[in-house]
């Protein structure tokens, strides 16, 4: 069985392939290649691509594939994983949750999720505490299944100026001036 990168290799330059495998940068891929890469990642992880387990985001000038809630949910189901909270604490305004993921064969992996709760109260504090649990479970699930990638719960900790939605290479480029009928009358 060919790996996802072997399948794609014939369509991608060596420079683009190097960016893809060393930095996870998909910006050198066209729309068809991104879809091919997306499907290959889904196939390799045993995920249904129709459930949108991954999405692309532009982060610090790179197009990065990240895991969504659907990814973690599918992995949990497919591998019959269970999660157990092993510790929760708040120190210096940070809520830290430690989670242990295990499978039926007895393999275990621990990971953490941390969320800033300083100054929060009421529903905002409750939601932040739940987010720390979710973050810990998803990080542990992705790690357990060999998908060491960014998870959507981590996106909001990245400054807005560092991220944007990636543009598809095949999209037409807008012209500098609006068409004459779109210009305002003088």
Tell me what you see in this structure:
The strands form two sheets. The chain has a three-stranded antiparallel beta sheet with strand order 2-1-6. The chain has helices at residues 4-9, 14-23, 31-45, 69-78, 122-144, 152-155; strands spanning 54-59, 62-67, 82-91, 94-102, 108-116, 163-164. The longest helix is centred in the last third of the chain and has 23 residues, at 122-144. It is globular, with a radius of gyration of 20 Å. Strand 1 (54-59) and strand 2 (62-67) form a beta hairpin. The chain is built from six helices and six strands; from the N terminus they run αααββαβββααβ. The protein is 37% helix and 23% strand. By secondary structure, it is α+β, with helices and mostly antiparallel strands.
Distance between the termini: 65 Å
Silhouette: globular
Q: What percentage of amino acids are in beta strands? A: 15-25%
* Gyration radius, in Å: 20 Å
**Largest sheet features:** 3 strands, antiparallel
Please, how many helices?
A: 6
Lateral strand order in the biggest sheet: 2-1-6
Low-pLDDT segments = 171-186
Structural class: alpha+beta
Measured as a percent range, the helix fraction is: 25-40%
Order of helix and strand elements from N to C terminus = HHHEEHEEEHHE
Number of strands: 6
Mean pLDDT across residues: 83
Explain briefly what this protein structure is.
It contains 6 helices and 6 strands.
């Amino acid at each position: 069985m060919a790996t996802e990168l072997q399948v794609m290799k014939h369509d991608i330059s060596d420079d683009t392939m190097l960016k893809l495998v060393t930095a996870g940068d998909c910006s050198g891929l066209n729309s068809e290649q991104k879809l091919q890469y997306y499907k290959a990642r889904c196939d390799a992880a045993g995920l249904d691509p129709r459930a949108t387990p991954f999405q692309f985001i532009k982060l610090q000038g790179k197009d990065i594939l990240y895991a969504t809630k659907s990814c973690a949910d599918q992995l949990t189901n497919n591998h019959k994983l269970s999660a157990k909270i092993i510790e929760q604490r708040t120190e210096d305004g940070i809520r830290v949750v430690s989670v242990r993921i295990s499978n039926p064969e007895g393999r275990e992996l621990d990971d953490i999720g941390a969320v800033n709760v300083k100054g929060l109260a009421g529903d905002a504090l409750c939601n932040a505490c739940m987010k720390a649990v979710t973050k810990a479970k998803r990080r542990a699930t992705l790690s357990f299944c060999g998908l060491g990638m960014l998870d959507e719960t981590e996106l909001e900790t990245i400054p807005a100026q560092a991220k944007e939605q990636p543009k598809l290479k095949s999209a037409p480029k807008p012209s500098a001036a609006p068409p004459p009928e779109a210009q305002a009358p003088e």
